[in-house]
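Hypothesis: this fold can be encoded by more than one sequence.
Test: take the structure tokens below, design a sequence, compare later.
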């Protein structure tokens, strides 16, 4: 906990030192750039939401009545669900195949280890002669 706190303090100190550096002639301070970027992003999000509302309203004006159901969105969601089910089934099959292959591989590994131990023992006995 104390180490994390010290790292955080060090990072803050490094950040403050970087921000305290004098900018060259004509450079904009980093703090001003960050504030401008955040303000620009906020404005872009607001404009995007307003454009979506405008598009919806224009669609209502062009075709009064019930709003059209987004069939393409529903079709895309259905296709994504189908793809997810397919991937899940393939994962289950692969998991089953791995589950079936692991016990024989472990048995073969144990047999190989026993053979290795016997070989080492035989080599040690041969070298002692």
């Amino acid at each position: 906990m104390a180490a994390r706190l010290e790292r955080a303090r060090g990072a803050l100190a490094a950040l403050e030192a970087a921000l305290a550096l004098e900018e060259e002639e004509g450079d904009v301070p980093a703090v001003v750039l960050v504030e401008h970027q955040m303000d620009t992003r906020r404005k872009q999000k607001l404009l995007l939401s307003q454009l979506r509302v405008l598009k919806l309203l224009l669609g209502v004006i062009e075709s009064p009545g019930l709003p059209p159901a987004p069939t393409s969105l529903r079709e895309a969601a259905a296709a994504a669900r189908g793809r997810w089910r397919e991937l899940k089934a393939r994962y289950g099959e692969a998991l089953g195949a791995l589950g079936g292959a692991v016990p024989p591989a472990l048995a073969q590994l144990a047999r190989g280890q026993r053979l290795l131990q016997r070989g080492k023992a035989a080599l040690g006995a041969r070298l002692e002669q």
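The CA atoms of residues 7 and 13 lie 10 Å apart. The chain is about 85% helix and 0% strand.
Hypothesis status: open.
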